[in-house]
C-alpha cells in the first residue's frame, strides 16, 4: 500500500510513540499477521494517545451495555467502586453506563427504566435500595424474572436469586472495637447511619457483641454509646458531640466521612485527636492517609469486591449462573494516627515503668504518617 506524505508522517508519529518500526505500524493498521500481541496493543495504545481514530476493522466491538447504579459520589468510596467496576467491565468487552443518584434527582427506579430502554445486558447495584430493609424489594425480583442478570454490592436480601457481594461489616466493627480496647479504651462509642440499612444493622450487632465480650458493659449502657444518625461529615459531627457529652474516649465510625466529622467535633471542644479521643473510620477511601491526623480505618477490599461482582455478572450474562448467595469479603484494620493509647492506660503504664504500646501487635497494620491535609474546623 502506498501512503501519502501526511499518512507517512502519522505512521512516523505512531511508530515513535509505540517504539516500533513504521513497517510494524503498517502491519497492525492493516490487521496483518506476524505481530506479537503486546506489540499490536502498543500500537493501538499509541493511536489512542495521539488522538488518531482506529480503523474500523480494529475497533473492539462492545459485548453490550451494562448499567452501574451508585449513590451520590461525594463519598469517595463510591467513585472508587465505580472506577474498578467500569474498568473490569471494559476489559470484559462491555460498555458501562454510570447512573449516579443525587438527593432530589433521578431515582434508582427511573435509572433502571432508562437502562431497560437501552437494552442493557445486566445491572450492578452499589449500596442501592436492596440495602434498605424498608424498601420494596419486588423491584429486583421483577428484573430477574425478565430475565435480566443483576448483582448487588453491600446489602443482602434473602430470597432474591442473584449474587451479592459484601464487606463483612460485623467483623469490621468487632476488629475496630478490639483495636481500641487493646489501647486501653473502655468508653467506646459507635456512630453510624440509620438502622434500616443492612450494613448498619450488622455493624451495630458487631459493636454490641465486641463491647460485651471485651468490656462487660450492660446492654443499657451500650444503648447510650451507640448513635445512629445521617451518613456524612455533619451526621458524624453531631453524633460524636453527643457521645463526647457521655464521656467516650474512643469512637468507631460507620464511614470515613463520619469519622472526619467526629474529629471536627472533638477539635471544636479543644480536644486533641488522638490525645483525648481516638477515632476509627470505615472504608479507607482515597486521601484518608493524608488527613490530619492520618485516619485509622477499616479498609473495604474495593478492588476484590468489584472484580468479583463483575465476574459474577458476566457469568450470568453468558448463561453460566453464578451461585445466588452472598460473598463476604474480610475488611482490614489499617492503623494510622487517629488512634492512640487512652490517657488512663498511658498513665498506668507510666506509673509501672512500662511503655504504652498496646494495640501494635500482630494483625494490626501500621503505616508511616504521610504529609497531612487538615480536617476543616
What does this structure look like?
This protein is 42% helix and 17% strand. By secondary structure, it is α/β, with parallel strands linked by helices. Helix 11 links the parallel strand 8 and strand 9. Helix 1 packs across helix 2 and helix 1 crosses helix 3. The N terminus is likely disordered.
Shape: globular
- Elements, N to C (H/E): HHHEHEHEHEEHEHHEHEHEEEHEEHEE
The strand line-up of the biggest sheet is: 7-6-8-9-11-13-14
**Which structural class do the helices and strands define?**
alpha/beta
Approximate helicity band: 40-55%
Number of helices: 13
Report the sheet with the most strands, covering strand number, pairing sense and barrel closure.
7 strands, mixed
Strand content: 15-25%
Low-confidence stretches: 1-5, 351-374
- What is the CA-CA span between the terminal residues? 67 Å
Mean pLDDT: 87
Radius of gyration (Å): 25 Å
Number of strands: 15
Amino acid at each position: 500500500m502506498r501512503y501519502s506524505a501526511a499518512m507517512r508522517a502519522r505512521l512516523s508519529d505512531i511508530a515513535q510513540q509505540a517504539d516500533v518500526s513504521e513497517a510494524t505500524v503498517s502491519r497492525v493498521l492493516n490487521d496483518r499477521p506476524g505481530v506479537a500481541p503486546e506489540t499490536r496493543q502498543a500500537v493501538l495504545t499509541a493511536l489512542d494517545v495521539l488522538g488518531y481514530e482506529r480503523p474500523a476493522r480494529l475497533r473492539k466491538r462492545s459485548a453490550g451495555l451494562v448499567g452501574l447504579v451508585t449513590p451520590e459520589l461525594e463519598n469517595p468510596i463510591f467513585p472508587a467502586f465505580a472506577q474498578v467496576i467500569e474498568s473490569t467491565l471494559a476489559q470484559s468487552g462491555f460498555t458501562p453506563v454510570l447512573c449516579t443518584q443525587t438527593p432530589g434527582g433521578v431515582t434508582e427506579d427511573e435509572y433502571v427504566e432508562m437502562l431497560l430502554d437501552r437494552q442493557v445486558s445486566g445491572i450492578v447495584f452499589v449500596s442501592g435500595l436492596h440495602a434498605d430493609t424498608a424498601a420494596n424489594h419486588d423491584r429486583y425480583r421483577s428484573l430477574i424474572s425478565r430475565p435480566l442478570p443483576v448483582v448487588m454490592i453491600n446489602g443482602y436480601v434473602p430470597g432474591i436469586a442473584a449474587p451479592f457481594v459484601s464487606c463483612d461489616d460485623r467483623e469490621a466493627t468487632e476488629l475496630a472495637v478490639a483495636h481500641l480496647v487493646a489501647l486501653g479504651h473502655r468508653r467506646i462509642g459507635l456512630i453510624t447511619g440509620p438502622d434500616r440499612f443492612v450494613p448498619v444493622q450488622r455493624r451495630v450487632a458487631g459493636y454490641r457483641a465486641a463491647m460485651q465480650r471485651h468490656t462487660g458493659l450492660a446492654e443499657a449502657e451500650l444503648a447510650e454509646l451507640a448513635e445512629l444518625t445521617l451518613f456524612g461529615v455533619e451526621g458524624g459531627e453531631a453524633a460524636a458531640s453527643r457521645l463526647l457529652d457521655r464521656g467516650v474516649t474512643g469512637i468507631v465510625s460507620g464511614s470515613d466521612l463520619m469519622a472526619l466529622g467526629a474529629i471536627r467535633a472533638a477539635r471544636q471542644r479543644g480536644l486533641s485527636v488522638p490525645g483525648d479521643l481516638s477515632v476509627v473510620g470505615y472504608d479507607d477511601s482515597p486521601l484518608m492517609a493524608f488527613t490530619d491526623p492520618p485516619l485509622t480505618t477499616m479498609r473495604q477490599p474495593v478492588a476484590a469486591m468489584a472484580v468479583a461482582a463483575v465476574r459474577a455478572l458476566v457469568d450470568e450474562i453468558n448463561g453460566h449462573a453464578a451461585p445466588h448467595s452472598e460473598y463476604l469479603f474480610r475488611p482490614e484494620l489499617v492503623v494510622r494516627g487517629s488512634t492512640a493509647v487512652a490517657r488512663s492506660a498511658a498513665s498506668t503504664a507510666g506509673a509501672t515503668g512500662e511503655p504504652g504500646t498496646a494495640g501494635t501487635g500482630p494483625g494490626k497494620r501500621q503505616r508511616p504518617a504521610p504529609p497531612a491535609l487538615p480536617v476543616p474546623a
